[in-house]
Amino acid sequence: MSDSVNTAKRARKAGIASFIGTTIEWYDFYIYGTASALVFGHVFFPDTLPAGVGTLLSFVTLWAGFLARPLGGIIFGHFGDKYGRKKTLVVTLVMMGAASFLVGLLPGYATIGIAAPIILTCLRILQGIAVGGEWGGSVLIASENAPKGKGVLYSAFAQQGSPAGNLISSGMFFALALLPTPQFLLYGWRIAFLASIFLIVIGLVIRLKLEEPENMKVVKKKDAVVKVPAIEAIKKHWVLILLGAGSLPLIQVTYLKTTFATAWATDTTHPWAYSSSTFLGVVTLALVVQFIVQPFGAVILDRVKDMRKAIVWIIVPEFVLMPLMFFAIELGHPGIALAAMAAATVPHSLFYAGIGGIIARAFPTRVRYTGISLAYQLCSMTVGGGTAAAAQWMYNSSDSIIPVAILSASYALVSLICTLILLNKTGWRASENSKAEAADEAEFAEALAAEKVEAAEAASDEGAPTDGPGTSDTAPNADATSTDSKPVPPRMPVTP
Questions:
Q1: Burial group, residue 119, by CB count within 10 angstroms (0-12, 13-18, 19+)
Q2: Residue pair 425/243 in contact by the 8 Å Cβ criterion
Q3: What CA–CA distance (Å, rounded) separates 269 from 396?
């Protein structure tokens, strides 16, 4: 089998495994967001709180997971850059599944009092640490195993796990919300968390069969791993980390579209309020649109020669579509709300498909896991985790959706500016190596050439002639070291 066929087969296998693993991880992460909008304010906080405060506090626990994500990025980025991507991804999967399962078993405030929200927050922090190490590793497993020049395209496999996990999460809660409200609050929501244990088993079976990317194998083989990857990444690549983080706010609008919008649109104080099942149906169908549309973002970036142009085409519509979505929801018509949410979903979905690969190619292999994880989780901590809580606070303070609409447009603006700067610094052609990849390739080629020389010398030493019948002690040496430029007999090895 040729090298190109082997590469293509390995790339497909890594891509599919990355997609399935991230789907399971994001399912676990997203069910918490949906539950925080619909359930946790009632179950884990006192029912004597003013209207909206319980939901706001549940969003604060949601934010705790985001605050923990940079810690997960540092911890698992460290191990991923030192010991490899595969083992790290197995650990993150188990940690996430265990935390979700325990949330499903956690008694409410009425049973154990203040211990309920405290334990809930701790479990959310464990989820945050796990997903903090998950995303970067999954993107790298897909992009580093890709054929040359296709890293951005193949990274979309990992990114596709997010809408898939979100879709399964919303679909699960849509079905569970059909239960009568008392039953849903008592036990229905717990089913979504307890079911994660079965998904984790499936994910483990798949991840344990993964192969380590070739460039990581070279780094480990030549003992070029960094002692403390986080220190080197921050010391030498802090600008790229900040630009990577600045390019990512746009993908956090999903928490405006799902978590905040679900709580806001189902608030019964609105005359136009939707039922929980109706609005979850709207969210679920919009996620179907995201799942279908998203891969085309990576295709666009792969096909357009200048990725900077593609990024502009993708992001600019979001300035209008996301703010319009909120005003459409206020009309109280499910069909209009669905059309507006589906339209608003398209730009940030296309962007999400390729941004992981764009950030990954900015860093050298030896600190790539750490670099991409720090960039992503820095944005998640400062923007993603606070998005739902900030939007809820803005709405509570102003009793208007306009500040939230402006917030969503500002995310798109920051992402557009930072992504363009990042591409200018690292390389803007998807088909060509970035600056970091080109440096890696030169270093690895040199290491491979040295390895071949060593192998040839070893083979030569092993094949050196020894005493035997018809062989003298001095003749071979005389032939090998003579200066009359006589050709060496065909079967006679040359001593280096």
A1: middle
A2: yes
A3: 12
Mean pLDDT of 171-198: 88
The Cα–Cα gap between 160 and 19 comes to 6
Q: Give tens-digit pLDDT for 417-451.
A: 999 999 999 999 988 999 998 988 887 777 667 77
* Burial status of residue 166 (CB atoms within 10 A of its CB: 0-12, 13-18, 19 or more): buried
**Closest among 155, 354, 376 to 249, alpha carbons compared:** 376
Asked if residue 357 lies in contact with residue 71, where contact means CB atoms within 8 angstroms, the answer is no
Taking only the tens place, the pLDDT of each residue in 313-364 is 999 999 999 999 999 999 999 999 999 999 999 999 999 999 999 999 999 9
The rounded distance, in Å, linking the Cα atoms of 353 and 356 is: 7
In terms of Cβ atoms closer than 10 Å to its own Cβ (0-12, 13-18, 19+), residue 102 is middle
Distance CA 392, CA 59 (A): 9
Token pair for 453: 């020389």
Q: Which residues does 90 contact at the CB level (< 8 Å), separation at least 6? A: 204, 207, 208
Task: Dig out the tokens for 9 from the structure.
Answer: 């087969």
Q: Which residues of 215-231 are buried (b: 16+ CB within 10 A; e: fewer)?
A: bbebbbeeeebbeebbe
What is the DSSP secondary-structure string of 174-237?
HHHTTS-HHHIIIIIHHHHHHTHHHHHHHHHHHHTT----HHHHHHHHTT---SSHHHHHHHHH
